[in-house]
Amino acid sequence: MDGKLTVVCGRTRSGKTLSTRQALTTEARLLVFDPKGKWAELDRCRAIHSRRELYDIAQAGLKGRFAFVSANVADFNFWARAAYWWGYISKLHGQRSVVVAEELSAFTHPGKAPPGWHLLVTQGLEFAIDIWSLMQRPAESDKTCLGNATRLRAFALTRFQDCRYIANELDCDPAEISRLPPLHYVERDMLTGKLSRGQVRANLRKAG
Predict the structure, then answer these.
(1) Beta carbons of 180 and 40 less than 8 angstroms apart
(2) Neighbours of 177 (CB within 10 A)
(3) Is 207 domain-assigned?
(4) How far is CA 23 from CA 26, 41, 87, 142, in A?
(5) 208 pLDDT more than 60
(6) Are 202 and 20 in contact (CB under 8 A)?
(7) Into how many domains does the chain fold?
(8) Model pTM?
């Protein structure tokens, strides 16, 4: 079975990270790009601070919950390539994997995606890698993941440019996005076209 690509956007403290943490709390194979160290602190993820350690984990396809803690753009590209091979090797052993890219708008831009990220997003799904892409500023983030998204979930956004951009993808009113209360979202299944609305349960420690 192919993996799925979920794009989650929203301003700080809107619920995007919390909703993702809730969805993945029981995942046994998880690799996060964690620029703020939230996942390493809150979600039983082993903190990884060096490329060497990340490389060794990816090369072996190790099972576990890992968070690569870095705020470096070059490290993001390295992480994405490592995540691709980690998932690829895992699939060879009949296992699916989950990767999470936090704060995507800080590490990509609307132009061509970084090579490692492009590889992960365009080819990783066929190796049963579920990808979660989280961003605050969708209008300023990589468009490759939005174009390949299986599911798009929007929490409240502040700037009209972002509200209009996401509303166009969701086919809803931009004002609805801007007026969403904290922990509420609008979501579209990009495969079936179904539009739904929901609320995150605040039963985990708060995060973005």
Answers:
(1) no
(2) 25
(3) no
(4) 8, 17, 19, 23
(5) no
(6) no
(7) 1
(8) 0.94
